[in-house]
Amino acid sequence: MSELRQRPIATSKSSNGPDKEPNFRQQSSDDETDQDHGISVLDIIRVIVTILIASCGLSYYMTSSESVLWGYRPWYTRWPVVKQWVQGPVILTPSQLSLYNGTDANLPLYVAVNGTIFDVSANRMIYGPGGSYNFFAGRDATRAFVTGCFKEDLTADIRGVETMFLPVEDIDEDITPAQKKIRREKELRAAKARVEGAVNRWSGFFANHEKYFEAGRVVVDGGFDGEPLALCESAQKQRPKRSAMVEQS
Ligand code: HEM
Questions:
Q1: Minimal CA–CA distance to 97: which of 185, 218, 184?
Q2: What residue owns the CA closest to ligand 1's atom 32?
Q3: Which of 16, 20, 122, 207 is 20 to 30 Å from 104 at the Cα level?
Q4: Ligand 1, from 119, 133, 143, 199: best to mutate by most atoms within 8 Å of Cβ?
């Protein structure tokens, strides 16, 4: 008995001849080996599902039971955003927009930056009546977003606001008017880029905020007429001084 079990299996050459009957025992053993080492599609699916479940569980634990997707909340899982999407964007004039400042509790709370209206109803504490940033509600106050002058600059008129980033010419320099002009133009371009950057940062803040969302656009009749606004006092004070810049260089 034991002799039988231990006897090595004959190769096809020795037992059956080269091209005769195949050795079925050998073949079936090869099949088993193939099955043991091969990875099936089912195995791959099993591994992926396990990783996903483990990731969800870990996320749930790490985010203090807040999210199974590591804080990611697709827009279609947020009811107010879906509702807005179905209704389409709101198009409001500045005076219509002013109704959405929180005084009517039945209306959403809107702020606007650079003509885009954002729904900030999720944060009545800040933007609602009595809130620390209620002055931004119901209007497009892009200028104040740049200057930080929350009394004087509650307007969308940003003409001339780039001056806040231009140096105050407080010394006489030994350079030609042409050199001054070229330098001024370069600085003006940089100042305008900074204004644009500040505006885009705030638009991005509202657009990408987990609780706010874009609601529509403000329509204005033409542009702004008349003289550009004077720079508010605190922005004026923050302007760099040429003397300090020369000293540094
Ligand atoms: C250009 C200047 C500034 C702008 C445009 C600005 C704008 C804002 C806005 C829009 C919010 C609300 C954020 C949200 O929806 O969660 C906010 C919050 C806040 N900001 Fe400013 N801010 C400015 C400067 C400052 C400065 C200088 C301080 C501090 C002295 C400050 C202190 C705060 C505080 C404490 C909050 C939280 C408000 C709260 O929880 O009630 N901000 N800011």
A1: 218
A2: 132
A3: 207
A4: 133
**Residue type for 25, please?**
R
Angle at 127 between CA 121 and CA 132, to 5 degrees: 155
For the entire predicted model, the pTM comes to: 0.76
Q: How many helices (H) and strands (E) does the chain have?
A: 11, 4
**Spatial distance between the Cα atoms of 191 and 103, rounded to a whole number of angstroms:** 37
241 Cα: distance to centroid of ligand 1 (angstroms): 27
> Which residues approach ligand 1 with their CB closer than 6 A?
123, 126, 132-133, 136, 145, 148
pLDDT tens-digit profile, the chain (249 residues): 444 444 444 444 444 444 445 454 555 555 555 556 689 999 999 999 999 999 999 988 887 777 788 877 788 878 889 999 999 999 999 999 999 999 999 999 999 999 999 999 999 999 999 999 999 999 999 999 999 999 999 999 999 999 999 999 999 888 999 999 999 999 999 999 999 999 999 999 999 998 999 999 999 888 898 999 999 999 999 999 999 998 888
Nearest alpha-carbon partner for 211 in 144, 134, 111, 97: 111
Q: Where would I find the beta strands (DSSP E) of 30-148?
A: 90-92, 110-113, 116-119
Query: What is the residue whose two structure tokens read 């706010």?
Result: 212
Query: 48: CA distance to ligand 1 center in Å?
Result: 43
CA angle 65, 68, 69 (to 5 degrees): 135
Whether residue 241 contacts residue 168, with contact meaning beta carbons closer than 8 Å, is answered with yes
The Cα 200–Cα 220 span in angstroms is 20
Output the pLDDT for position 13: 43
